[in-house]
């Protein structure tokens, strides 16, 4: 009997991207008993919800949409999990509304799950390239096999039992607008003993919106990641040695990265590394000072 997989999609004010994603899901290769759930975080305009309502009667897979009124990426992910646990799905596949899967996506996820025995798997994300500019958004990719932690919640396969045995809220609302809710979720799962794996061929594709096509965005993104990563670390009350070590690494990055960026200035792609390191370190320092960056206050894409 085919495995039952619920594809869960959080969306907010990106109906065009959601339509592209749903079209790609409709083209998935057979190999599982698939259903689709969309949670629209835009209670006012709910364009994503309305799109699903129009598509559902003739859509290839069972398609349902809900509206999550409480604003925030953690809240909408929690709604998806809560709704998924009301179904009979054995696996929850999470994909963001600015991504779209290759035809073999679910088949490759399930294949890698059988090979690795992982409780949570992440698939690779390959970003479309436009022009000859610097590579500001590198692909997210690893070889298939066990990993320490996933790198985000954008392309995941989660075994149902993991969610059933993890207390709600699964994603901490304290990270609602800042991001980092996925890292916090993974840290909780790791502390509980769940196993992670990577499925390289379970690929999602993504493009780079105009707002993400410059160095300013790359630095803001690095700052945001560093800020949320440090907030997650501080949440779990690290010991003095770990805190001092992280502080020294952050200070060193703040001091050395600008000089390295100047040395590598003639090569935009090589310059990216130290600039991103500087942005992450600055975000970590801000988190240590009690500051947070609300990355999800801005919508990228349509």
Can you tell me the CATH class of the largest domain? Alpha Beta
**How much beta, percentage-wise?**
15-25%
CATH homology group of the largest domain: Spore Coat Polysaccharide Biosynthesis Protein SpsA, Chain A
Total count of strands = 9
Number of domains: 2
> Which architecture of the largest domain does the CATH hierarchy give at level 2?
Alpha-Beta Complex
| Helical percentage | 40-55%
Uncertain residue ranges = none
Based on CA atoms alone, the radius of gyration comes out at 19 Å
Tell me the structural class: alpha/beta
Q: What shape does the CA trace take? A: globular
Average of per-residue pLDDT values: 88
CATH topology of the largest domain: Spore Coat Polysaccharide Biosynthesis Protein SpsA, Chain A
Biggest sheet descriptor: 9 strands, mixed
Figure out the total of helices: 9
In whole angstroms, the N-to-C terminal distance is 38 Å
Order of helices and strands: EHEHEHEEHEEEHHEHHH
Question: Which helices and strands appear, and what pairs or packs with what?
Answer:
Layout: E1 4-11, H1 15-26, E2 33-40, H2 47-55, E3 63-67, H3 73-84, E4 91-95, E5 99-101, H4 105-116, E6 120-127, E7 145-147, E8 155-159, H5 160-164, H6 181-191, E9 196-206, H7 215-235, H8 240-263, H9 268-288
Parallel strand pairs: 1-2, 1-4, 2-3, 6-9
Antiparallel strand pairs: 4-8, 5-9, 6-8, 7-9
């Amino acid at each position: 009997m085919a495995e039952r997989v619920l594809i869960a999609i959080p969306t907010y004010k990106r109906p065009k991207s959601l339509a592209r994603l749903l079209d790609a899901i409709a083209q998935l290769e057979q190999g599982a008993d698939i259903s689709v759930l969309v949670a629209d975080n835009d209670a006012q305009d709910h364009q994503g919800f309305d799109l699903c309502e129009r598509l559902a009667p003739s859509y290839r897979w069972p398609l349902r949409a809900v509206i999550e009124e409480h604003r925030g990426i953690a809240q909408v992910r929690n709604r998806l999990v809560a709704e998924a646990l009301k179904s009979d799905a054995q696996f929850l596949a999470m994909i963001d509304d600015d991504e779209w899967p290759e035809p073999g996506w679910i088949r490759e996820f399930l294949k890698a799950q059988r090979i690795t025995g992982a409780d949570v798997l992440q698939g690779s994300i390959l970003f479309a390239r436009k022009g000859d500019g610097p590579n500001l958004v590198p692909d997210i990719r690893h070889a298939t096999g066990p990993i320490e932690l996933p790198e985000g919640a954008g392309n995941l396969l989660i075994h149902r039992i993991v969610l059933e045995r993890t207390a709600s809220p699964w994603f901490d609302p304290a990270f609602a607008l800042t991001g980092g809710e996925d890292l916090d979720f993974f840290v909780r799962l790791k502390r509980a003993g769940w196993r992670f794996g990577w499925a390289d061929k379970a690929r999602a594709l993504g493009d780079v919106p105009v707002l993400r096509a410059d160095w300013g965005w790359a630095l803001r993104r690095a700052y945001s990641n560093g800020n949320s990563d440090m907030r997650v670390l501080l949440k779990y009350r690290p010991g003095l040695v770990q805190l001092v070590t992280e502080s020294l690494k952050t200070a060193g990055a703040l001091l050395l990265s600008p000089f390295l960026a100047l040395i590598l200035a003639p090569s935009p792609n090589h310059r990216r590394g130290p600039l991103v390191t500087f942005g992450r370190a600055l975000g970590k320092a801000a988190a240590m000072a009690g500051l947070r960056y609300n990355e999800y206050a801005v919508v990228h894409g349509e």
